[in-house]
Amino acid sequence: MYGLLKMIQVLSLLLVVQAAVLCDLDRGRIPNGLILAGLGMGFIWQSVSDGIAGIALFLGGIFLPAAIFGPLYCFRMIGAGDIKLMSVIGAFLGPAECFSCMVCSVLAGGVLALGLVLYHRNLFQRICCFTDYVREYRDTGKWTPYLARADERARFCFSVPVLISVLGCIGGVI
User: Fold this and answer.
1) d(CA 146, CA 68)
2) What pTM does this model have?
């Protein structure tokens, strides 16, 4: 019976994350309705599989991404939808596995960003943009959106590395 429940958990999580990636690639945002559906499914999964302890895992899993990625959102280095998507992952997997997925997402995102920089041959431009951003913040103390100063070639959907990390996590690679 547990094997069937685990398969339902994995398939549900994959369904939500894949739908989020498709929406993000198509529209540049992840719908809140999809996030709410994912959180609801994660809550049901945790409640059914672990009872009261599952609710604690659910809560820890949904708040961990906001606590860790919140500062990146303040600087507009990551979108709110990406944090909410990570919260859905935390709802299904709990805080420990969610943290692993977060680390792997950042690493996969770094590899993707490096690939884009090499492809567009704008590494020096990106380094200058970042150092100017840090210098401006240091001098003025004002937070401004980081990506406001970046061209479209510097942007990518973080939901893609999130999907890669989830596949690695549920596949046992992570």
Assistant:
1) 18
2) 0.85
